[in-house]
Amino acid sequence: MNHQVQIAGVLLLLAMAGCSRHAAEAKPPTPADPSASVPAAPEVATAEAPLSYELRLGRETFQHYCKICHGEMGAGDGFNAFNLDPHPRDLSDPAFQKAKTDGELKDAVRRGGAGVGLSPLMPPWGRTLSAAQVDEVILYIRSFKKTGP
Ligand code: HEC
Questions:
Q1: Which of 22, 127, 143, 144 has a Cα at 20 to 30 A from 56?
Q2: What is the DSSP annotation of 47-70?
Q3: Distance from the CA of 119 to the center of ligand 1, in angstroms?
Q4: pLDDT for 49
Q5: What's the CA-to-centroid distance between 70 and ligand 1, angstroms?
Q6: For atom 5 of ligand 1, which residue has the closest CA?
């Protein structure tokens, strides 16, 4: 009797192990999605209309230098944002977008927070990015208003 209970227990454990292994195996492969047969462009952040060339360059720059603090879509939720006081604001906020001219945004990017009376934790990028790259990244930040909340 005791023996039977033990065997039942072992069988149950085996079944559970089998199940969880199954679940783990079943997860990684992409779901059977008809669009999956078309090799998707890697790392496309938005599932929207294709971005212009300049916007794609701006996205490159943003993802390389800015995303870490500002977050993928500019919401101020980057990996490093918790570390920053004040936090980066939500760049996709329509009110913010409206309140700032391109010139002001470019100035903040080039000269950094300290250069324009904001937090010095926003670094200056004027020596890192070319004028064209600053233009592109602002263009990309401007595109956030369409996808933002
Ligand atoms: C180390 C973190 C960090 C990185 C990296 C960073 N920023 Fe910032 N940024 C900040 C913080 C913090 C603020 C908020 C400053 C404040 O409100 O006082 C800010 C503010 C801004 C603002 C808003 C200024 C305003 O008018 O309120 C813009 C635009 C901006 N960043 C663009 C960029 C761009 C473009 C990049 C990449 C080239 C970038 N940031 C990289 C931390 C960062």
A1: 127
A2: -SSPPPHHHHHHHHHIIIIIHHHH
A3: 8
A4: 73
A5: 7
A6: 66
